């Protein structure tokens, strides 16, 4: 049992922990004030005699200026905490949610390290997938990380665990290089078949394929035909530029060391293979979407998934938290109001 601004709570969590970096704004404001005060003091010292300057500046209260700065710093800190969405409570109850079966196959080949999409094709795909998962509810999600071979994570509705699976994964974690889209589709279909055997045949089943489309050593169209027979739609997201991009060479620490060359000593260029991805999506009744530096297409993916058949999951415990950010927004507003209304000049004696 603890308290937050005087309010008791049993459990506490942060819904948007990535927003906690905004707390750095508070020491930044402190540093800005310190620099401003020091600069003002230097400028005053240049104007003339110290005694005369002190008399001219006597109407300004240094203590009140410091108080105003402190109020602003505290307000910034409260606002940063509010944006991180602290939640308290944690009431658990049995709920049924409607959903579908979704397998996300993400390309971990070295060509996904290309930086034509910031910060790289792979890192941008991870971030956008997390955004997509934040918008979903009730869908069972399985993962396939693939290059020349595949690594899988079984379907679950625990999205936090799903995000952790490949958050720190890199192409070096998959022992066989290349881009085997066919093997990725096969692994995804195997997961969906197992779910059907457990009684999930009435649910919509989808494979979301994210890759630059350069298949090197598999037969993806055969797996596309298999998916079509099973009624599994493949939504393919092509990541990268049509003009091509050099592929960085990285060491074990993930630091770039130039660019990859082929056996003839020429730099390897990775181009988006849209034709193959379009054919796979069309063969299964899915859709092809292109991700570029400006627009990734999470909203389009969400819209496409929204039209698919969903059924109820088995009842499971769902923990509901109470938002407590308003307890932070109110003091932040009052602090800002106090800073704005604070008169930084001394009262004149009559």
Give the overall form.
elongated
User: Helix and strand succession?
Assistant: EEEHHHEEEHEEHHEHEEEEEHEHEEH
Structural class: alpha/beta
The side-by-side strand order for the widest beta sheet comes to 8-7-6-9-10-15
Which stretches are poorly predicted, pLDDT < 50 over at least 5 residues? 4-9
**What's the count of strands?**
17
Name of the top-level CATH class of the largest domain? Alpha Beta
CATH superfamily grouping of the largest domain: von Willebrand factor, type A domain
SS field, number of helical segments = 10
Radius of gyration: 28 Å
Task: Write the SSE topology.
Blueprint: E1 2-4, E2 7-9, E3 12-14, H1 25-47, H2 50-56, H3 62-83, E4 86-95, E5 98-99, E6 101-107, H4 121-135, E7 140-146, E8 150-156, H5 159-165, H6 181-200, E9 205-211, H7 220-230, E10 233-239, E11 245-246, E12 248-250, E13 256-259, E14 269-270, H8 274-284, E15 287-291, H9 298-306, E16 311-312, E17 316-323, H10 326-341
Parallel strand pairs: 6-7, 6-9, 9-10, 10-15
Antiparallel strand pairs: 1-2, 3-4, 4-17, 5-16, 7-8, 11-14, 12-13
Key traits:
350 residues; 10 helices; elongated; 2 domains; 40% helix; 3-stranded antiparallel sheet; alpha/beta; 6-stranded mixed sheet; Rossmann fold
Task: Walk me through what this model shows.
The two termini are 55 Å apart. The radius of gyration is 28 Å and the shape is elongated. With 350 residues, it is α/β, with parallel strands linked by helices. It has helices spanning 25-47, 50-56, 62-83, 121-135, 159-165, 181-200, 220-230, 274-284, 298-306, 326-341, and strands at 2-4, 7-9, 12-14, 86-95, 98-99, 101-107, 140-146, 150-156, 205-211, 233-239, 245-246, 248-250, 256-259, 269-270, 287-291, 311-312, 316-323. A 6-stranded mixed β-sheet has the order 8-7-6-9-10-15, with helices on both faces. The chain has a 3-stranded antiparallel β-sheet with strand order 3-4-17. Strand 12 and strand 13 (256-259) form a beta hairpin. The chain has 10 helices and 17 strands. The longest helix is centred in the N-terminal third of the chain and has 23 residues, at 25-47.
